[in-house]
Design a protein that fits this description.
Elements: H1 22-38, H2 42-59, H3 63-67, H4 74-85, E1 92-96, E2 99-102, H5 103-129, H6 132-143, H7 153-183, H8 193-224, H9 243-268
Antiparallel strand pairs: 1-2
């Protein structure tokens, strides 16, 4: 389960998606997140899924790596689906005691499950095709105009970079701690919820201690290298928009227009 978390994990490959400017990929991800919540018609979901599949193929990332990110929230997807199925209005097709599953609730639950799945799958492409450092640099460049009103753009970007960088590290350390505790007789798979929660204390305590130790070591390392913030700092790689970024923006605009058009047709139909 822990190894399935793809947040912050970069998959190296030579693909058109990898070569895009990080700022273009961040904006495209935001647009896709908005579009997936605008989708209500079945054909809109089909178009969104087809567009996502094309992006995954262009990224040259194995599909299993993309959909591994969905597995950790599978419980949330199933819960949202069942909640909508048994709370909808209309004609019931299944009755379980006081609960009734309706056709309207089933369609709403399917839409919610599809939204969450597509949202996580497409969002994971950002971190799989972009290193955490490039994501942080892109965010800093995009937030730079806010510095005129006192917004700490560099500090925010630095915190995001550190957070993304250490997510895989903390996941691996958690897995090691759980294996070490299991070899000493700890059991995380049997018993009730309270018993499992008490068992996790033996994981959380050393994990927090290790996290504080890593934070202290990182602070010492940054101080030893005379880090004093973003003022006066230069960059090894300067971001510049290329023609391929313009092509990607045009494709994204065309897809957004198609989604809006499909939703307009759905709303216009009686």
């Amino acid at each position: 389960m822990l190894k399935d978390i793809s947040l912050g994990r970069f998959y190296p490959a030579d693909s058109p998606i990898h070569r895009l400017d990080p700022r273009a990929k961040i904006l495209a991800t935001v647009v896709l997140m908005v579009l997936v919540f605008l989708a209500n018609d079945v054909w809109t979901f089909v178009a969104y899924a087809a567009f996502s599949a094309v992006c995954i193929l262009l990224s040259r990332i194995p599909v299993v790596h993309v959909f591994k990110s969905v597995k950790p929230i599978l419980f949330l997807i199933v819960f949202a689906f069942l909640l909508n199925v048994f709370s909808g209005k209309g004609e019931a097709f299944l009755t379980l005691g006081p609960l009734s599953a309706t056709w309207d609730g089933l369609w709403t639950g399917l839409r919610m499950a599809a939204r969450l799945t597509l949202l996580i799958a497409t969002s994971s492409l950002l971190t799989l095709t972009t290193t955490p450092i490039l994501v942080a640099d892109a965010m800093e460049r995009m937030m730079k105009p806010l510095q005129r009103i006192g917004f700490p753009a560099h500090e925010m970007a630095m915190m995001m970079s550190i957070a993304l960088r250490f997510v895989p590290t903390l996941v691996e350390e958690t897995d090691k701690i759980m294996k070490a505790q299991s070899s000493r007789g700890a059991d995380y798979d049997t018993g009730g919820i309270l018993r499992r929660a008490r068992g996790l204390v033996s994981v959380l305590v050393p994990l927090f201690i290790g996290s504080f130790r890593r934070a202290d070591e990182l602070a010492v390392a940054m101080e030893a290298r005379c880090y004093r913030g973003g003022e006066g700092r230069t960059r090894l790689r300067v971001m510049r928009l290329a023609p391929r970024d313009g092509v990607a923006a045009a494709v994204m605009l065309a897809f957004s227009a198609a989604v809006v058009w499909l939703e307009y047709l759905r709303a216009a139909l009686p």
